Structures are given as structure tokens and as C-alpha cells.
Amino acid sequence: MNPLLDHAQHLARRELFGRAATGIGTAALASLLARDGLADDSSTGGLKVPGLPGLPHFAPQAKRVIYLFQNGAPTHVDLFDYKPRLAEMHGQPVPDEYFAGKRFSTMTGDPTGKLMLAPVEPFAQRGESGAWVSAFLPYTAAIADDLCFVKSMHTDAVNHAPAISFLLSGGQLPGRPTLGAWLSYGLGCETDSLPSFAVMTSVSKGTTCGQIFYDFYWGSGFLPSKYQGVKFRGSAEPVLYLSDPPGMSREMRRGLLDDVARLNEIKLQDYGDPEIATRIAQYEMAYRMQTSVPELADFSDETQATLDMYGPDVTEPGTYAYNCLMTRRLIERGVRMVQLMHAGWDQHGSITTELYTQCKDTDQASAALVQDLKQRGLLDDTLVIWGGEFGRTPFLQGDINDRPKWGRDHHPYAFTVWMAGGGVKPGLTYGESDDLAMNVAKDPVHVHDLQATILHLLGIDHERLTFKFQGRYFRLTDVHGEVVDELLA
Question: What's the half-sphere exposure (Cβ side, CA atoms, 13 Å) at 268?
Fold first, then answer.
């Protein structure tokens, strides 16, 4: 090895810290104090979280995020975006001026001559806010005054995986850090016994339109892999490989991990590879999760009233309702972000059949999670987001004379998400689509704007949370995005 390079390597890892005025011990102590909330920093409103120095950039309104991601794209025109003219034009061709110059999926191709499709179920205005919600979602309708509806969302992608990647990572191609990874990197975690970023997935039973859950939906991209989401499975063993092997005591496991850590530390000193540091940290996390995860998945301390609120599927591992209650329990224990993904919304030919099942499986539990957080005083500083990667076309996919197979194609030009808690205005409906729910007509909110707003609610300036990779400083919002101030409470 070149002696100059060897000297520079050891200087960077050892002597630099040793010669520093304060030393690494002070930095470590500061980290521990911040984790325990003992350090003083008036610039963040007293909130102390371990993460990057200087974060949060300003006093946050939310400490944590729950993303109820509905894979496959819920149909905004059947659930939230009420358009009387759409019902009036049922069965008539879509006017050319509404789709001129626009790109649709290959299943639609050229939309010329496609017929408009009225909402399948009736709408009504709900609560004091008067938000329009379909009869498909009675439980969501009942909490409409707690929700902030954004009806002017739009995106750049027309197919599922690129659109999901774009919404969660800011890029249509895999390989960039997702929202949860950025939050873990920037803000850290408030618990030593669970990951900062947890992920759960579910699919409605019997659905014919499930989506694949790709690991890059919760990946860390070019950030160190310790920031990626940890997937909790819907089974008796939520996290794999936590149990001690047969015949190995906990004390023996502890000794083995200590020895492995020493070997890894030697390699870390030799190579300085952050993935080795990740390996050390993840072994330790897994050891602590041997105790925390079984307790987390034990619902015996939940009241019957709470279980009933989430619905009949709440005690069945792997269901959406079960995952929603697990989400609240994770949040209570200091997890920074939970990404709950539910597939089955890709209704190209099942609007009149499987949409009913999809709403039944998700409506009650989604509303219950918001109510449960509110009752426990957690909603004020927990941001809940519900929505998919895009919407669905106001025109029909299929034969209008074959009602059981009615469907709607992908639609990126206008769709709806709702948010609750965490500093957003309750009872607000923001933005509008046009009279056929085809295009945004007022107050457009792009995907990057939503990302910037989410980060802002967590006390982060989206232009300042960056990571240098391949000579460029990257951020979640790429080089775009504006905070939507009108959504902020």
C-alpha cells in the first residue's frame, strides 16, 4: 500500500478525532443527550432528535409520519372528486380538448372515442366542512372534518412502479433514497429497540389486481443501507432471523455478536466502508428487537373497544386492519416513519366489483387509525397521509354494456390524497380538477410540492437536506418543489 495513502486514511479515521479540540467523546455524549432530550436548542422548539447536526432546521409541527400508501391508484372520481357533469355525460365520448397532447398508458393509447363513466356510487357532503366523499367510504366520511383533502395532485408517470418510485423517492428510476430513508438520515430515531423506518404490506383477499411490492419502494438508494425501511411481515414472526438458533442461549448470542462486532470494527478501521458500520449497527438492532418485536405484536393489552374500532380483521396478521394497529403501536414506541402499503386498487376491469372489497378492507381501519391517534394525543404531531401513485381515468376502460367488467385506466393528470394531523389544516379541501375530473383546474400540487410540504411539516427545508453522490448534491425533491403554505395549520 502507498504509505502516503495509508497515513491519510488513518488520519481521517483516528488522528483527526484524537487531535480535535473536543474529540469524539464529546460528540458521542451530545448524541446521547439529544436522544434523551437533555440538550438545549431553542431553535428547534425544544424537540431533540438524533440525526444530522442542525436538524430540524426550524420548529417542526410533526415528529413522525404514517404513509397509508394505496398501491394501484384509487379512483378519485369514484371516491372523492364529485363532478355532476361526469354523471350527465355518462356514455358520451370524452371531449377532445380534455386530452389533447396528453399521454396515457398503452391500455388506453389514444383516448379518442372513449366513453365517459359516471361514479358508481353516490356522493354526499360530509361533516361541517362539507367535503365530498363517496358512499364507498362511510368511515372516512365520518371523520371528514379531521382530514385535509388535496384534490389537485398531479404527477409525471403513467405506470405504477415509476409513479410509486417518483412519489416516494423523487425519481422514476429506482436507486434514490425514499422519504423514510431521508427522514431516518436527517432526523434519526427516538428509540434504540426498533428501526426508524418500518414498512408493512397487505393485499385484499381475492383481488385480481394486486401490485408487486418492490424493495426499492422503501430503499435507501445511495444513502448508507442502515437508513432503508425494515419490513415487518404479516405472520407470527414479523421480522426474520430474530430468534436465537436452537441450543444457543441469549448470553451466548451476546458474546457471539460482541466478537463479530470486534472483527467488523477492525475491517471498518482498515477500509472506512460505511456499510461495515451499518452491519455493526444492524446486528445490535436485531439483538434488541428480539425483545421489542414480540411485545409489539402482542395485542393482549389492547381494549376490546380499540380492536372493534379497527374492524373484524384486526387480529389477523397480514391484513390491512392488523397493520394499521401495528402502525399505531410502532409510532407509540418511537418509530419515525411507518409506510403501510396496500395493493389491489388497479381496477382496470373491476370498478363495480372489487372496488367494494377494497374499500371494505381499508376504509374502517384507516379512519380508526386517525381516531385512535387523536384519542391518545398523538395526532397533533403525527402526519398521516392516504393516497396512491396517481388517479384513474374519468372515461371507461371496457364495454359500457358489460357493467361487471367496467374499469378505469391510469390517470396522472389529476388525483386526490388526504392528510391528517401533523400540522395540516383539518376540514380543508384544497385545489380543484376540471368539470370532468380530467385535469387540474385550480391550485395544482405536483408530487415534488407534496414532498416539500411533508418535509416542511417535519421542520426540514427540502432544499437543504442533501447528500452528495457521484459529484452532485441530491435531495428528495430533485431540483423542484414548493411548500404549499395553504395546507399548513
Answer: 16
Amino acid letter, 280: I
Helices (H) and strands (E) in the chain, counts: 14, 17
For the segment 442-453, what is each residue's pLDDT rounded down to a tens digit?
999 999 999 999
CA distance 427 to 143: 9
472-478 average pLDDT score: 97
The pTM (predicted TM-score) of the whole model is: 0.87
C-alpha dihedral sign at 108, 110, 114, 116: positive
171-220 pLDDT, tens per residue?
Answer: 999 999 999 999 999 999 898 899 999 999 999 888 888 788 999 999 99
Q: Classify domain 53-238+304-487 at the CATH class level.
A: alpha beta
Q: How far is CA 292 from CA 242, 338, 410, in A?
A: 11, 16, 41
Query: What's the pLDDT tens digit per position in 155-171?
Result: 999 999 999 999 999 99
Distance separating the N- and C-terminal Cα atoms of the chain: 59
Between CA 410 and CA 433 the distance in angstroms is 16
Rounded CA-CA distance 88/116 in Å is 9
Q: How far is residue 202's CA from residue 75's CA, in Å, rounded to a whole number?
A: 19
Q: Which residue is associated with the grid cell 361533516?
A: 127
| CATH 3.40.720 in the chain, residue ranges | 53-238+304-487
